[in-house]
Amino acid sequence: MWHELARPEIWVPWLLGMAFGILVGSTPGLTATMAVAILLPVTFHLPAMAGLAVILGVSFTAIFAGDIPATLLRIPGTPASAAATLDAYELQRQGHGAPVLLTNLFCSAIGGLVGVGLLALLAPQLARWALRFSSFEYFWLGVFGLSLSAVLTPGQAWKGMAAAALGVLASTVGWDEVAAVERYTWGRTELFGGLGFIPAMIGLFGLAEVFRSASHRLARRPDARLEIRSASSRALRTVLAHPRLILQSSLLGTLIGALPGAGADVAAWVSYGLAKRLSRRAQQFGQGCWEGVVAPTSANNAAVAGAWIPALVFGIPGDAVTAIVVGAMLMYNIRPGPNLFHENIHQLHLLLAIAFLTQLFLIPAGMIGILGFRLFIRLPHSLVMSAVVVFCVVGAYAIEQKWFHVMVMFGFGLLGLWFDRHQVPVAPFILGMILQPILELNLRQGLIKSDGRFQAAWERPESLVLMILTLAMILGPAMWHVVRRIVAGIARPRTSESSP
User: Fold this and answer.
1) DSSP codes, 145-209
2) From CA 470, how far away is CA 91, in angstroms rounded?
3) Cβ contact 235:99 at 8 Å
């Protein structure tokens, strides 16, 4: 099997695809889905395994490459990199740019290896469990993710909840596919497709940083040294210091990736929130905490592998990338589904071997991408900020070639500046925009299927478990605070009586 992968007609386009993934992923606004879609026509002229190797290489490397501008410029290259932006950029401002980038790289590779391992070992079981989810299970999954907004808030919880509500409200703009009506469009056809998540993300993170830099006039420029050798030991120490967190985030990312429609961005945010919930340094999250870098970067690459579980076992894509891949596999006369594990076992083993080796190749490819980006950030700060504006405009315009998205990006840039000045966290807002379609659509579908009975939302065991977890996430901190006060009140009189 291994000698087949050593053929030039497979590994040459494979490595070129990984290089293309680094380029696309590090360009704000250009997603891994876009990269796969661009290369898909090219893969039809390649052997089946070579074409699938290209797609795998692009998808995994693009997810990591999005962390490069997220760390150095506070602009997530892909939506899956948004969660890591919070702490990675703060650590870079403290002079840890190179160790942060290498930590991202190592955690992405480890997360991908864990995801591929689970794909190989537990694919049938995990996919069968995910397919048991009804509309209400997806609704509670969305509510659970949205409740993490309080956990993600470094300051006052009500500001986090308000930001999450604003994110949900912003995501409702556009055409309602269920009721077939316009919502908050004011008759403008440009708003029928919604405000756009990617322009909003570019504005909130990238353009807001330019505005912030211009208003303060004293912004610390990114660490342009990025010495790989001296930073490798620091990054390795960070990885070795958090084995439980890496494994936890990788497993969670794989599970979420196996849920159709969830995606790597949701996996990254949920892993970030869970890491903060379980951390002893929760107050440091968002201010430059290494755990806030390790958790999302381990989860997002694992989610890419997890999305292949329902795609291979049942032919149901886990995200947009695997939806394209399923179409490509059918073009290659490889039919995903249960029979794939019996009729085409050799091709399946080749595919898993390619996915495994891609995680190992990711490390040298990522280092080349980091060194290449170093040339850019060595420019004077004014030129870097000017280039950031250009990247933001190009990234927003490239989505659908509409200047309206550029206007949306500028609007959210001003909103991000306002958030910063009033200490309103950006993370719950982004999470609200991501989860609103999952939450609303599945709630409405569930109510339609159950003839409007709200009781059906917790009748199934899976729904009940998710509902209990959500209530525990929301009410747990308050109940724990009350219990601590009661215990302290009971213990205080005993202490005073025992004192002389």
Assistant:
1) HHHHHHHH-SS-HHHHHHHHHHHHHHHT-EEETTTTEEES-TT-GGGTT-S-HHHHHIIIIIIHH
2) 31
3) yes
Residues 6+ apart with CB under 8 A from 205: 70, 74, 75, 76, 82, 85, 416, 426
Q: What is the pTM of this model?
A: 0.68
Q: Provide the residue type at 82 as one letter.
A: A
Residue 174, classified by CB atoms within 10 Å of its CB into exposed (0-12), middle (13-18) or buried (19+), is middle
Tell me which residue of 148, 162, 146, 194 sits closest to 439, measured CA to CA. 146
Axis-axis angle for helices 135-152, 263-278 (nearest 10): 50
484 sits in which H/E element: helix 461-498
For residue 49, what are its two tokens? 């395994």
The mean pLDDT of the chain is: 78
Which tens digits make up the pLDDT trace of 262-275?
A: 678 778 888 888 88
Find, among 315, 255, 286, the residue nearest to 466 by Cα. 255
Dihedral angle, C-alpha 126, 132, 138, 139, nearest 10 °: -150
Residue 152 near residue 431, CB atoms below 8 Å: yes
Residue 244: its pLDDT value, please?
92
Domain ranges across the chain: 2-459
